[in-house]
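Weekly modeling sync, notes
Attendees: S.R. (lead), two postdocs, one rotation student

Agenda item 3: backlog of single-chain predictions. S.R. asked that every request posted to the team notebook include the full sequence so nobody has to chase files. The rotation student volunteered to paste the first one in as an example of the format we agreed on. Action items at the bottom.

Example entry:
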Amino acid sequence: MSCGGTRALEVLATGALALVEDLGRPGLAASGVGRSGAADRSALRLANRLVANPEDAAGIEIVFGGLAVRAASANRPPLTVALTGAPAPADVDGTPVGHHALVTLRPGQVLRLGMPPTGLRTYLAVRGGVAVDPVLGSRSTDVLAGLGPPKLEPGHVLPVGPEPREFPLVDVAPVALPPGGPVTLRAIAGPRADRLAEPAALVRTIWRASSRSDRVGMRLEGGQLERAGSGELPSEGMVRGAIQVPPGGEPVLFLADHPVTGGYPVAAVVCDADVDRAAQVRPGQAVRFILVPPPWQDAE
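Predicted structure, as returned to the notebook:
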């Protein structure tokens, strides 16, 4: 990854994992290409709004903090950035800076992130967006399909696009931080709940996020959902938020880089807004589900 212009961010450290993400590749599932994109879309949208980018501009998704980037824009105006999502302690050349706020990076200055006390994924937006080359219309890294830019490594230089015409309207956005305790996720039953011996066990069980979770899905531990009948279902389309039950009985909640098809029964589908909350759940954190009516019932 090299800089194609004079405004750039140089990656000095990445922590556990840092990826370039935007809002993904919609509309390609029929061709076998998942949407991907930011795991916590609301956090990326907020970061982009703060710096007056289009909401689908590419930023950096950081897992468990540890990112360090230098403003590599010599003889250019400072870069304006914003941090959202998991509240990783941050500083610029040793001076603490806040989240959900505008931060200025002058040429040569270094922004460093520590480990967040709650939440899992922090988002960094830079005014102008991260302008790496798009793949199939998106700058997102899809870890399952291997599409998009590679995961970030020290030494990568990320070009920054031209500043948008709009100017930031607020300096700070007061928003709730990801919780550190149990997380409750709303879900709609089905469409294959009838393939479970006891569908109610999904909401009765207090689950825990497994350390084997990733951008493909949150693996859940703490119980097993027994499947009814024998044989597998024909493969069918999968969506972000689907709770699939593999033969072992421990559910998997599909996240940003989920497969586009699957043959295991889907016990329920998490409401779209709550999938972003699920993306901030840390390994070992408690998760429970509540069933809500499907939106088409509310409209009747």
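Discussion: group reviewed the output briefly. The chain has a mean pLDDT of 93.
Action items: rotation student to repeat for the remaining queue; S.R. to check formatting next week.
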